[in-house]
Design goal:
Blueprint: H1 10-36, E1 45-54, H2 55-61, H3 69-77, E2 82-86, E3 89-93, H4 101-104, E4 111-121, E5 124-132
Parallel strand pairs: 3-5
Antiparallel strand pairs: 1-2, 1-4, 2-3, 4-5
């Protein structure tokens, strides 16, 4: 066995054993972290169906639904960030490198389908180049 070689200094044997043990101990953590990352293909167009929300109130106090629709519309019209919430996940929404606030404000609190490209950085997911899917 490698560690029983009498020609290797004792310190080298200990260093190899520690490095091997550390690698074995941390590999499941690295694998778990990689599994948790959402794989987003930036070139692929995705469709998201969900509720249009004013992101300020949604993030601050989970405001959504009919009770918040008129307030959400005002905030979105006023330039606040707009998002879509689908299956408990919120996406920040922008058009072709510009806000879609005027187009989406009247839809606050309503369920719509948007399509666009997904981008993810720092825990924020963006639906960019978004457009409303007409059904």
């Amino acid at each position: 066995m490698y560690l029983s070689n009498p020609k290797l200094p004792k310190l080298m044997q200990v260093a190899v054993a520690v490095a091997f043990t550390a690698a074995l101990a941390t590999s499941p953590l690295a694998f778990a972290a990689e599994q948790g990352k959402e794989k987003l293909d930036a070139s692929a167009t995705k469709e998201v169906t969900g509720e249009i929300v004013d992101m300020m109130c949604y993030v601050d106090h989970n405001a959504m639904g009919d009770k918040h629709a008129s307030c959400g519309e005002k905030c979105i019209k006023g330039g606040g960030p707009v998002g879509i919430v689908s299956d408990g996940k919120a996406y920040l929404v922008v058009g072709a490198h510009k806000p879609m606030n005027d187009e989406l404000a009247p839809l606050a609190g309503k369920t719509v389908t948007l399509k666009g490209k997904m981008a993810n950085n720092g825990g924020v997911t963006l639906l960019e180049n978004a457009e409303i899917v007409k059904k």
